[in-house]
Amino acid sequence: MRVLLIEDSERIQKAVARGLRANGYAVDATGDGSHGLYLAQTEPYDVIVLDLMLPGMDGLTFLQRIRQQGQNTHVIILTAKDTVEDRVTGLRAGADDYLVKPFAFEELLARVEALIRRRHDAKNPRLQFGQLVVDISAKRVFVGGEPIELPPREYALLEYLILHRGRVVGRSEIESHIYDEQVEPMSNVVDAAVYSLRKKIDRGSGASYIQTRRGMGYIFDPGTA
């Protein structure tokens, strides 16, 4: 999942970006509202974490702009402005959640996870497909009741495919939502990650949860495993 973090405090920006990446998120970060708007207009994001008091363009103006443009990306306001009036103004401007500084990173992480579940209409964080169980909140995977250790990128890939299950997801879409850095053209990084993931979750069942659609991408289809 890809997160846009717009926060002008360098200390907070670095800490939040580091924590999100450690939990498997791809993160783009900026401290300028105008640059944040440019990124939001050019890249697909699952969640935007937005400060209000920003140089270049304030957070409320940013929020109003993306909503006027028809963007429905979930937005969490992260700010020191803590009055009821501030919260009401932010939510009415189009924010989906509001977190006041100082904050605990674990709470921010839980709110990001909740918005991603809401985006994909997944109320229950524990998803089961036969022998495969994925706990989105705990970032844990089980096969046949046994825990499976996945690197953050492989977990993020599995979660993304599951939340888009039943739909073919192209390689370029996976690259844009899972990887921070630009993936080289013709790279096999996604194919290699899918291959590794299959070996861990299929467990010799004879069929795979992740099916290849040649020339198009991959689809998570629990009915085939």
Q: In words, what does this structure look like?
A:
By secondary structure, the chain is α/β, with parallel strands linked by helices. The protein has two domains: 2-119, Rossmann fold (3-Layer(aba) Sandwich); 126-224, Winged helix-like DNA-binding domain superfamily/Winged helix DNA-binding domain (Arc Repressor Mutant, subunit A), CATH 1.10.10. The protein is built from eight helices and eleven strands. The chain has helices spanning 10-22, 33-42, 59-68, 84-92, 105-119, 152-163, 171-178, 189-201, and strands at 2-6, 26-30, 47-50, 74-79, 97-100, 126-129, 132-135, 140-143, 146-148, 210-213, 217-220. Strands 2-1-3-4-5 form a five-stranded parallel β-sheet, with helices on both faces. Strands 6-7-8-9 form a four-stranded antiparallel β-sheet, with no helix packed on it. Strands 10-11 form a two-stranded antiparallel ribbon. Helix 2 (33-42) runs parallel beside helix 3 (59-68) and helix 6 packs across helix 8. The radius of gyration is 18 Å and the shape is elongated. The mean pLDDT is 89.
